[in-house]
Amino acid sequence: MKVTGIETFVCDVYRTNWVFVRVLTDSGLYGVGEATLEMRDLTVAQAVRELERYLVGRDPHDIESFWSEAYRDAYWRGGVVLMSALAGVEMALWDIKGKDLGVPVYQLFGGKVRDAVPCYANGWFAPAKTPAEFAEKAKQAKAQGFGGLKWDPFGKSHLSISRPALRQATDCIGAVVEAVGEDMEILIEGHGRFDVPTAVRIGHALEDFDILWFEEPIPPDNKEGLAQVKRRVRVPIAAGERLYSRWDYREFLRLECADFLQPDVSHAGGISELRKIAAMAECHHLPVCPHNPSGPVANAATLQLAACTPNFAFLETMNTDVPWRADVTDEHLVFRDGALLIPGKPGLGIDIHPEAMLAHPYQPHDLRHYKGNLTDIRPPDARPYFHEA
Questions:
Q1: FRET pair for 308, CA 20 to 30 Å: which of 21, 264, 289, 341?
Q2: Domain encompassing residue 164
Q3: CATH assignment of the domain containing 312
Q4: Strands (E), the chain
Q5: pTM of the prediction?
Q6: Tens-digit pLDDT profile for residues 227-285
């Protein structure tokens, strides 16, 4: 079997565009991957196509060889565009390998350590603005069965935060906690927007709540600053979605930057790279909770990692999505008792429908974090995309 080409497909999904990859072979077998990169959709799609010359004519089973050579020959190394492109192609190669051998990808990494993975919800709050609206949305998410809720309550603050804005944020958290009760895990998102003293100040305010973690309190390019924040607050810290390789994580772990590691399978080089990062974290007795707000193929790949990674702790899921998510893939997810069941189909267990994407062509989308419309993350007709069992 030899690779004959790589295709990319870009599909608008309201807040971003999904970037799908399909690797073709001369046997007729193909694999799918996802390289979604918010606000850089067309750039990463082109980067994927530039990897085609590394693969055409090669055996798709030689995944490690392809990955190592493509990373080596990039010369400038790392960076989110290269690593996202590599991730999308690498996922597709694992999909081919699993299909060819007739087994799910997790079997190629030693088999399952769990049958289902507990989930927390993101996006559940759309389009809430006030504490009362957040509380009502939280009740709805709890009724869906999620074991945790994550959101950013900090409005459009950047670097610093005013007293009224911080008070509004803590009022929002308090309203949600009161609405859902003590059994629900609370995860507070910072989106890397604060300076060190402000992050510490917010962290101290969060100590009044029994939260699971404070995520990305400062920008991701200052690991020493993040480690300082972690030392100075008494709430757990989560971070790592904007680190793109095991080499980035080496320093991250040495400095003891976070309690929970959040690599993203569609940004950090793919399935193998996340396995290596997770193994590094395991040596430090730290859990991995991958960043996973993207599309259905990235979610399928993350579920394969959840199946075979002992220190995989909690899966991020969006509780609703655009209605056409069901049209552009054959995704079938079963949600039971707050957890997603691990699918057992060969490969990644998912396929894409490019013809359906034609109705949703690429649209440019800008970052919302500093504009006051952060919660406008879902359209009014968004709906759940998993099956409840």
A1: 21
A2: 107-388
A3: 3.20.20.120
A4: 3-12, 17-25, 30-34, 116-122, 148-151, 185-189, 213-215, 237-239, 260-261, 315-318, 334-336, 339-341, 387-388
A5: 0.96
A6: 999 999 999 999 999 999 999 999 999 999 999 999 999 999 999 999 999 999 999 99
Parallel, antiparallel or unpaired: strands 30-34 and 116-122: unpaired
E strands, 190-236, are 213-215
Contacts of 380 (CB under 8 A, 6+ apart): none
Catalytic hit among 158, 284, 285, 291: 291
Task: Determine the average pLDDT of the residues in 285-305.
Answer: 97
Name 373's Cβ contacts closer than 8 Å, sequence gap at least 6: none
pLDDT at residue number 349: 98
Asked if 296 and 122 touch (Cβ cutoff 8 Å), the reply is no
- 137 and 13 in one domain? no
Beta pairing class for 237-239 and 213-215: parallel
**Does 388 score more than 90 pLDDT?**
no
Distances (CA, A) of 118 to 147, 278, 327: 7, 17, 26
pLDDT of residue 140: 96
**Domain identity same for 143 and 56:** no
List of residues 6+ apart from 174 with CB closer than 8 A: 131, 209
Render pLDDT for 14-64 as a digit per residue (tens, 0 to 9): 999 999 999 999 999 999 999 999 999 999 999 999 999 999 999 999 999
Our answer to whether residue 291 is catalytic in this structure is yes
Q: In whole angstroms, what is the distance from residue 2 CA to residue 211 CA?
A: 50
8 A C-beta contact, residue 61 and residue 90: no
User: DSSP secondary structure string, 313-337?
Assistant: --EEEES-B-TTHHHHB----EEET
B/e letters for 92-126, b = 16+ CB within 10 Å, e = fewer, are bbbbbbbbbeebbbbbbbeeeebebbbbbbbbbbb
From 191, 267, 360, 369, active-site residue: 191
What pLDDT is attached to residue 145? 95
Return the CATH number at 7: 3.30.390.10
Q: Which amino acid is at 162?
A: S
The predicted-structure confidence for 107-132, as pLDDT tens digits, reads as follows: 999 999 999 999 999 999 999 999 99
pLDDT for 7 beyond 90: yes
**Measured between alpha carbons, how far is 138 from 132 in angstroms, rounded to an integer?**
10
Domain stops at, among 103, 133, 149: 103
Asked about 61 being catalytic, the answer comes back as no
